[in-house]
Amino acid sequence: MRLLLVEDAAGLGEVIRDQISDEGHAVDWVKNLSYADASLQVTQYDLILLDLMLPDGNGIDLLKKIRESGDTTPVIILTARDQLSDRIEGLNAGADDYLVKPFDLSELSARIAAVSRRYSGNPNPIIKVGTLDVDLNKHFISREGVAINLTAREWALFEAFIQHPGNVLSKSQLEDHLYAFGAEIESNTIEVYVSRLRKKLDKGQLETVRGLGYRMRSS
Amino acid sequence: MRLLLVEDAAGLGEVIRDQISDEGHAVDWVKNLSYADASLQVTQYDLILLDLMLPDGNGIDLLKKIRESGDTTPVIILTARDQLSDRIEGLNAGADDYLVKPFDLSELSARIAAVSRRYSGNPNPIIKVGTLDVDLNKHFISREGVAINLTAREWALFEAFIQHPGNVLSKSQLEDHLYAFGAEIESNTIEVYVSRLRKKLDKGQLETVRGLGYRMRSS
DNA sequence: AAAAACCTGACAATAAACTGAAAGCCCCCG
DNA sequence: CGGGGGCTTTCAGTTTATTGTCAGGTTTTT
């Protein structure tokens, strides 16, 4: 595996790098965000270890940037023990895991192993849904080579259907999927988004089951 | 999402269950490993929250068993702060994540959200009724690959017959199935719906038993 | 042949869903 | 810190599908 370590503390960085090297992985170690940013332009890494507290800015921004670009390289963030909000923010920004400093090296190893295992199995599954080609990891859809751009909500809705192909999903189920944390919705938002999704990608796949919900035919 | 919570501590379990429910997920809460084992046989969960310290054994074993069976349902393990080795062992046994007790509820939420991003759908039993293929969960009927769309009432009626294959069902029984208790019906509604059902899917399966009711032959 | 039971096409009322447009929100940029 | 653009949410008017009922016809039973 090829890892990128973004860590400004000299001592800690060295320890981590040595540990990872000992396990047979390649490590690039950069000490600030601008270098990290640059490194990411050039090379494909299998895993990124990202310290959130860096002298020249907030690692969260880099993480967001990575995810927004559609890159799904696993990211493990490193945070101080008392930065709970950072951890949550980090996970929500798309981090795959975190480690709290100071951490045990064997724990780091286990995390790296776990994350890499998660991703090694299916490198880039492309699902066919009707005439659509869907790359779930990259959040990318195309039909006959033509890209179809969805907004975040549109994608979330689409994803719900993808994850339950052929199932009838009720509006409240879809709401749960779109608004993860109990947020209530008091309008016909789902209908509106179904309408938009259809306009963008329907060739009859998204059907209404009156009184029950919606279903996407996957064949 | 459908979650399985394996946790013996009554207080903590309750808090977790409530939190998850509030977020719109379905939770099954079991308090020991044998129940957990049994639950897993029966149902497909989207995510499992597993306390490693249980009265009747080590959760790691359950986790290993799950993974050895080829099941990839995401598992988040719950451990005490000082059980570092457990955490590592858990991750290596195939856990997707862990939470250290005591943990913040918002952290739990973030973790669930992170893990649930990668959960996927599950297969469904398909019943054969004559020449019809019926997927009860998906509310979907087809004959020779051709979808047959039923309205809510039509489906409800069909369901009644499915649930009592070969039985003669009287009109009043069918009414009870279609309409809430007490709701009286003062016309030949059932006859009408039987007629509609036949038009949509009958190849002689739905037969009239004069004076008694209707019966669906399932073979 | 009359009565009983059942079948089915048509219809109006109702309930559900669709969709264009406006308002609100949020993030980014200067 | 204010403005702009894109995304999200709400609203409201319209369209569509379903439903329960009836009426007249058909079949079965006696």
Write the layout of secondary structure elements.
The structure is a homodimer.
Chain A lengths: L1 E5 L3 H13 L3 E5 L2 H10 L4 E5 L1 E2 L2 E2 H10 L6 E6 L3 H9 L4 E5 L3 H16 L5 E4 L2 E4 L4 E4 L2 E3 L3 H12 L4 E2 L1 H8 L10 H13 L4 E4 L3 E4 L3
Parallel strand pairs in A: 1-2, 1-3, 3-6, 6-7
Antiparallel strand pairs in A: 4-5, 8-9, 9-10, 10-11, 12-14, 13-14
Helix pairs in contact in A: 6-8
The first copy, chain A, binds a DNA duplex (30 and 30 nucleotides) through helix 6 and helix 8.
What can you tell me about this protein's structure?
The structure is a homodimer of 219-residue chains. Chain A contains eight helices and 14 strands. The first copy, chain A, is an alpha/beta fold and 219 residues long. Chain A has helices at residues 10-22, 33-42, 59-68, 84-92, 105-120, 152-163, 171-178, 189-201, and strands at residues 2-6, 26-30, 47-51, 53-54, 57-58, 75-80, 97-101, 126-129, 132-135, 140-143, 146-148, 168-169, 206-209, 213-216. Chain A has two domains: 2-120, Rossmann fold (3-Layer(aba) Sandwich); 126-216, Orthogonal Bundle (Arc Repressor Mutant, subunit A), CATH 1.10.10. In chain A, β10 and β11 form a beta hairpin. The interface between A and B is large, with 36 and 36 residues. The first copy, chain A, binds a DNA duplex (30 and 30 nucleotides) through residues 151-154, 185-189, 191-196, 198-199, 208, 210-211.
